[in-house]
Write a structure and sequence with these properties.
The chain has about 775 residues and is α/β, with parallel strands linked by helices. About 25% of the residues lie in helices and about 25% in strands.
Length: about 775
């Protein structure tokens, strides 16, 4: 009763706020509460949160948007800044944070990854057994919802829904729950944060977009079907990439959580989606979205993911599409699998044939009537940068009518440039990269004949258009080609390290297929996503780390099916230590940005190899307690650590001298003012008993690397062994030296357990 009295006294002291409320616009705030402080008089935490708001708002029921139960201790509420400030002064409140907006990171893949159903036995795993086991694995996808009629969600041959499933399919005016089945077993939507923002601060104003699990954007259907879509024959985008479309884990179940709307993905909605997915019983969470980097206690996805990991749920997130800029990563928490993007061995060639008879190579997914072989006039604006970029309204129809227009890449959407050209009377487009986009080619389903070319080719074509008194061009389309070499190549757009939140943790973790990926699509929107695109397609080809993330989510589901006892950290380790760093020409991976050799700040441990990941030999496992020790090593307050960990008794009595001591499958060595950095790691044997591993190290000439012991012998399955690695920066190395990279490999005839290492000599800064 005393607790109740003090709590009610505290909140009644805010009554004056009701009397002096101004017309300040309301915003969404996420309020972190001391879970254990709930007075006994309140039956539920929801009741307590409502009471907390009663003294602040004339309409507390409308103010309380979400009560979080698992992913976070607290609630989301619609408040004005004065109310938020007042609430933050409560002893029971650990923090009040304004809602953040996150953004989406936007068929040959299974074969390219070695997952075609004809491959027979995976080492020690019968394909049929694996397919049966994966029927019990549930992948939760937080995205733009789902188009349930897509053939990718056909449930033929699937048994009853796993009994552990506690989710449901919600009803909406455009969504009948009966559209769900034994493949698509859940579909929910969370829009209160979006609702608040779209209503301009008035909760009663209706957002433009209907509250429904249905996907009007296409992105969510694409990611969900990439992770676990069923086999669909004769799939293509308007004839391109024709063949069988399938997800990574074709027998796993899918549950979708719509948290992204027209104006973005709001943190309060994402947290509500994660909260619900954890309670519903998902095994894997896939989030192809993110924001900038922030401390973990201010990162909604990191906070929700921590609870998921604690409950044995694997969390896969996209790294972001801000490459090739350094230090551009999102979703870098060590308990999250951070996924970059690479290319496939498939391409969609197209050509620009100029009046000087030179033919330049590019790419395109244009599927309409071609231009014919006769060249037409070629136009490139010599004056304004807005018309160089083909921004809306920037082209003069008198100058471009009947011509092919060169548009510089950047500022507005690639497909939008084609629409601008078409609207001005142009008959074709050459989309030319600039220095920012380098040599990266992304194929698009353009509205008019169009070819995308790299920067070097773009410069040659621009020069021709400028210097020839009567420049002409014809565009030719080459369909789909396979076995492209080299591949994979790291996508230029894939966000790069170093990790700015915790430089001692190497990120990204891996890369997966993320360029020109064919998967299911929403029939509510054309393949370009533009309002004026009236074409309808059941499949679309998209690029982004948004596409690579669900590949890894699906692979994690397969590994979980094969090894149900493995922790999320063990699954992550298996995918990382077996990844490859050589392309299909047996050369080191290259970077699409400039054709140079890639490095672990771009590709992490390398490109995933699912067959090897099923039998990695050894894994680096990490317990929840070790993650807490890691958090206690970051200089956070106890309250900040509790925001992430959600336990009342955190004391941080244990911490690492250096956050890099976490038992991570990769190393990021930051010398700073030290010459010696020493880490101890622990390996767990998941291979056969009586396995012996020897170590091999590679590093730059500027660093000495020694490992003790050099041999590890595992007598039993599940046995754990430690080793210590010492890195010594050699004297005379400049503190301004550029970053270097190396590797540590524990190997025998059966397995190679490889960890990438990065070396930096100075503290990283923005």
């Amino acid at each position: 009763m005393a607790a109740m009295a003090s709590s009610s006294t505290f909140f009644s002291s805010f009554i004056f706020l009701v009397l002096c409320l101004t017309a300040t616009a309301k915003r969404t705030y996420i309020v972190h509460m001391k879970h254990q402080d709930k007075p006994l008089s309140f039956e539920t935490h929801h009741d307590w949160y409502s009471s907390s708001l009663q003294s602040l708002s004339a309409t507390p029921a409308e103010s309380l948007l979400y009560s979080y139960n698992t992913a976070f201790n607290g609630f989301a509420a619609s408040l004005d800044p004065e109310q938020a400030e007042a609430l933050s002064k409560s002893d029971s409140v650990l923090g009040v944070y304004e809602d953040t907006v996150y953004n989406l990171h936007t068929t040959r893949t299974p074969q390219f990854l070695g997952l075609d159903s004809e491959f027979g036995l995976w080492e020690g795993h019968n394909t049929q057994q694996l397919e049966q086991a994966s029927r019990d694995v549930i992948i939760g996808v937080l995205d733009t919802g789902v188009w349930p009629e897509s053939k990718s969600f056909d449930d033929s041959g699937l048994p009853e829904i796993p009994s552990k499933w506690r989710g449901e399919c919600e009803s909406a005016p455009d969504f009948n729950p009966k559209l769900c089945n034994k493949k698509l077993i859940g579909a929910r939507s969370f829009s209160k944060g979006y609702h608040m923002a779209a209503g301009g601060g008035g909760i009663s104003k209706k957002p433009k977009e209907m509250e429904s699990p249905r996907d009007k954007d296409g992105h969510g259907t694409h990611t969900a079907s990439t992770a676990a879509g069923s086999h669909v024959g004769n799939a293509s985008l308007l004839g391109y990439a024709s063949g069988t479309a399938r997800g990574m884990a074709t027998h796993a179940r899918v549950a979708t959580y719509k948290v992204c709307w027209e104006t973005g993905c709001f943190g309060s909605d994402i947290l509500a989606g994660m909260d619900r997915a954890i309670q519903d019983g998902v095994d894997v969470l896939s989030l192809s979205l993110g924001g900038g980097s922030a401390p973990y206690y201010r990162d909604t996805i990191a906070i929700g993911a921590f609870t998921a990991i604690e409950k044995g749920i694997f969390v896969s997130c996209s790294a972001g599409n801000s490459g090739p800029t350094k230090a551009s990563l999102a979703n870098v928490a060590p308990w999250i699998m951070t996924v970059g993007a690479g290319t496939l061995d498939r391409d969609f060639p197209a050509y620009a044939v100029l009046g000087n008879k030179v033919r330049y190579n590019g790419v395109s997914l244009y599927s309409g009537q071609g231009m014919g072989k006769n060249p037409v006039g070629l136009f490139y604006s010599k004056d304004s940068s807005s018309s160089n970029l083909c921004l809306t309204g920037s082209l003069d129809p008198a100058l471009v009518r009947g011509k092919v227009v060169i548009c510089d890449r950047g500022t507005n959407a690639r497909v939008e440039k084609g629409a601008v050209v078409r609207d001005a009377g142009g008959v074709g487009m050459i989309l030319a990269n600039t220095e920012v986009s380098g040599e990266e080619l992304v194929a698009d389903s353009h509205l008019l004949p169009a070819v995308a070319v790299g920067r070097k080719v773009g410069d040659l074509i621009r020069e021709y258009a400028r210097s020839d008194p009567n420049p002409t061009a014809a565009l030719v389309f080459g369909g789909t080609v396979l076995d492209v070499k080299p591949s994979p190549v790291v996508a230029a757009f894939s966000s790069r390290g170093p990790n700015m939140v915790t430089p001692q943790i190497l990120k990204p973790d891996v890369i997966g297929p993320g360029v020109n990926i064919l998967a299911g699509w929403s029939e509510a929107i054309g393949p370009t996503g533009l309002a004026k695109d009236t074409r309808k397609t059941q499949f679309n080809i998209m690029s982004g780390t948004s596409m690579s993330c669900p590949h890894i989510s699906g692979l994690a589901a397969l590994i979980k099916a094969a090894h149900p006892e493995w922790s999320p950290s063990a699954i992550k380790s298996a995918l990382m230590t077996t990844a490859y760093t050589q392309d299909n020409t047996n050369s080191s991976l290259r970077d699409a940005a400039d054709g140079s050799l890639s490095n672990p700040w771009a590709h992490g441990a390398g490109h995933v190899d699912p067959q090897r990941a099923l039998s990695p030999g050894l894994v680096y496992d990490i317990s929840t307690e070790e993650y807490i020790t890691f958090l206690c090593s970051l200089g956070y307050t106890i309250d900040h650590v509790m925001t992430i960990v959600k336990r009342p008794n955190i004391t941080c009595s244990r911490n690492f001298k250096d956050p890099g001591e976490l038992n991570y499958p990769s190393f990021s060595v930051l010398f700073g003012d030290k010459r010696v950095v020493r880490y101890t790691r622990e390996l767990t044997n998941v291979g056969p008993a009586m396995s012996v591993y020897n170590v091999a190290v590679k590093g730059p000439s500027t660093v000495g690397i020694s490992v003790r012991p050099k041999t590890l012998t595992f007598r039993t399955v599940g046995e754990k062994k430690r080793y210590t690695v010492t890195f010594v920066a050699k004297r005379g190395t400049s503190p301004m030296a550029k970053p270097e990279f190396g590797s540590i490999v524990w190997g025998n005839a059966r397995s190679q357990v490889k960890s990438p290492v990065s070396f930096s000599w100075t503290e990283l800064s923005d």
